[in-house]
């Protein structure tokens, strides 16, 4: 456990710095192009496309398949060098082809999402941005391919620290754009070809840099890497069969996401839309990334090792311990973000009213935060056993629910039940509902596969955390009201909004830990041990 603790601490630190610089990056970007506007949503859509298309590869092959396969390959005579060389060669070819096809299909992809409700100039601007942003697919893929190999070799740090360089480059580029062209540039007519090139090019250069930096750490793997197009005889057929299900799963998720975006764009230029949803998701991902990815990633490597060795009892122990640990830290963070939702949203918006609309979207996403953390462990346990078929079916079920809830949100809006200002939040709430149902189904299926995973014990622990989080969030909301509420100084500007979060969060966490102490939660003992590790003795 000490090695897992050190790996988690290193990942948490890197992820924290990465996310904080990412937040700064978004703040600067909002200052340049705004939070609500047609041009803003055009760039958001184009810059999101590489992530969406890359997810086909990332979810389809890298996360689900490669880590377990690399863990097994490392046990071979050559330490996995032959297998990994072939994987990297094949992966590079796939990434180049995918990037080229995506760029050729850029106008079609944009028109698929931007329905007739958007204007032709907005669609043309989105296509122009897409040509500059879509090369990110290749660099995202290279970054993930190297990073997953480093993780499989238990070299966890660089994967989370490299994005800091991307954020720093982007911040500098966005500030330069603001100085050159003025701010904000949220009107479609403001965007000339040189301005488009500066913004799109800056975003892509940052992604390329983080991949190159990660490549510098490859020698630490002690693996010989060379181009190898002889793809037969080392198990790539098995990888292909496993990846088939996860690729189908990623296609379903991508289609559901496209449909969500098309519904949210109904409000583009008038109310909270795609950009607000992306920024709310960024805040949502801060506790998820810092806590879930930093703790869960080392556990996934350990799960893969135990599953490969057939030690099911140890896998069950890993599942319960990981979920309880995630839940303990995550519920405290969730309570803090809920209480500070409006000032946190003000950091990424241009006014108090925009902050309130964005906070509604954020709260809707937060409903699904804890289930998503549980799903992270459950889904990756299936992957550790080489089962990608079962996750495909319960993810397909989630995608159907996402489309159904987004369609329902649009119907309610057309009927006048959901106002345009709440359309994005309703779509986000539908996604959270779908995630909750998906997590329940996935947990039941995994419990059947392993003949029990100690569900009752860790569910009771999660309920204990929820009980502690409710008064903690209420206390934080009370502090927010004492600071003036939605029309107080914390929503006057971005810096006051950040200061409001700094004031509210400690109160929430203190109440959360206090209630857990009253409940005599055993997880506090683990926290005390962790604190003793980092605080020198007297």
Automatic annotation (TrEMBL):
Record membrane topology: Multi-pass membrane protein
Ranges in a coiled coil: none
Main location: membrane
Subcellular location: Cell membrane
Statement: the UniProt record of this protein carries the keyword Membrane: yes
Pfam families for the chain: MurJ
Keywords: Cell membrane, Cell shape, Membrane, Peptidoglycan synthesis, Transmembrane, Transmembrane helix
InterPro entries (UniProt xref): Lipid_II_flippase_MurJ/MviN, MurJ
Transmembrane annotation, as ranges: 7-33, 53-75, 87-113, 125-146, 158-181, 196-218, 239-260, 280-301, 322-345, 357-378, 390-409, 421-446, 458-483, 495-519
Protein name per UniProt: Peptidoglycan lipid II flippase
Originating organism: Microbacterium panaciterrae
């Amino acid at each position: 456990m000490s090695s897992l603790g050190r790996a988690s601490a290193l990942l948490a630190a890197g992820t924290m710095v990465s996310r904080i610089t990412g937040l700064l990056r978004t703040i600067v970007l909002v200052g340049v192009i705004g939070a609500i506007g047609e041009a803003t949503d055009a760039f958001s859509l184009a810059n999101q496309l590489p992530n969406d298309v890359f997810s086909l590869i990332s979810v389809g092959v890298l996360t689900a398949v490669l880590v377990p396969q690399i863990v097994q390959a490392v046990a071979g005579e050559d330490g996995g060098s032959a297998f990994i060389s072939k994987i990297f060669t094949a992966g590079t070819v796939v990434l180049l082809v995918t990037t080229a096809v995506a760029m050729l299909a850029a106008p079609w992809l944009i028109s698929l999402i931007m329905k007739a409700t958007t204007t032709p100039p907005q669609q043309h601007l989105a296509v122009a941005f897409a040509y500059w942003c879509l090369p990110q697919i290749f660099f995202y893929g290279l970054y993930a391919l190297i990073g997953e190999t480093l993780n499989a070799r238990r070299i966890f740090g660089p994967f989370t620290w490299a994005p800091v360089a991307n954020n720093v480059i982007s911040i500098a580029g966005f500030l330069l754009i603001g100085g050159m062209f003025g701010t904000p540039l949220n009107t479609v007519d403001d965007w000339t070809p040189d301005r488009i090139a500066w913004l799109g090019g800056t975003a892509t250069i940052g992604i390329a840099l983080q991949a190159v930096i990660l490549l510098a750490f490859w020698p630490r793997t002690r693996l010989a890497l060379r181009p190898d197009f002889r793809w037969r005889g080392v198990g790539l057929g098995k990888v292909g069969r496993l990846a088939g299900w996860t690729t189908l799963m990623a296609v379903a998720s991508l289609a559901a996401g496209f449909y969500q975006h098309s519904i949210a764009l109904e409000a583009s230029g008038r109310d909270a839309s795609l950009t607000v949803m992306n920024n709310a998701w960024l805040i949502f991902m801060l506790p998820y990334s810092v806590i879930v990815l930093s703790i869960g990633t080392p556990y996934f490597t350990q799960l893969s090792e135990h599953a490969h060795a057939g030690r099911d009892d140890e896998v069950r122990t890993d599942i319960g311990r990981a979920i309880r640990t995630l839940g303990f830290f995550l519920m405290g963070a969730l309570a803090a973000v809920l209480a500070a939702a409006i000032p946190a949203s003000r950091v990424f918006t241009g006014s108090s009213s925009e902050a309130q609309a964005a906070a509604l979207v954020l709260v809707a996403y937060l409903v699904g935060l804890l289930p998503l953390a549980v799903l992270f462990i459950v889904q990756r346990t299936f992957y550790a056993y080489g089962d990608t078929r079962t996750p495909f079916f319960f993810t397909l079920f989630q995608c159907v629910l996402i489309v159904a809830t987004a369609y329902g949100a649009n119907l309610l809006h057309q009927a006048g039940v959901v106002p345009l200002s709440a359309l994005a939040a309703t779509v986000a709430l539908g996604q959270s509902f779908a995630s909750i149902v998906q997590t329940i189904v996935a947990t039941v299926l995994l419990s059947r596969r392993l003949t029990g995973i100690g569900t009752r014990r860790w569910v009771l622990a999660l309920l204990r955390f929820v009980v502690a989080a409710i008064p903690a969030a209420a206390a934080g909301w009370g502090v927010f009201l004492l600071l003036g509420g939605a029309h107080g100084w914390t929503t006057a500007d971005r810096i006051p909004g950040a200061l409001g979060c700094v004031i509210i969060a400690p109160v929430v966490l203190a109440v959360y830990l206090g209630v857990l102490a009253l409940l005599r939660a055993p997880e506090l003992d683990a926290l005390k041990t962790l604190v003793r590790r980092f605080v020198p003795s007297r």
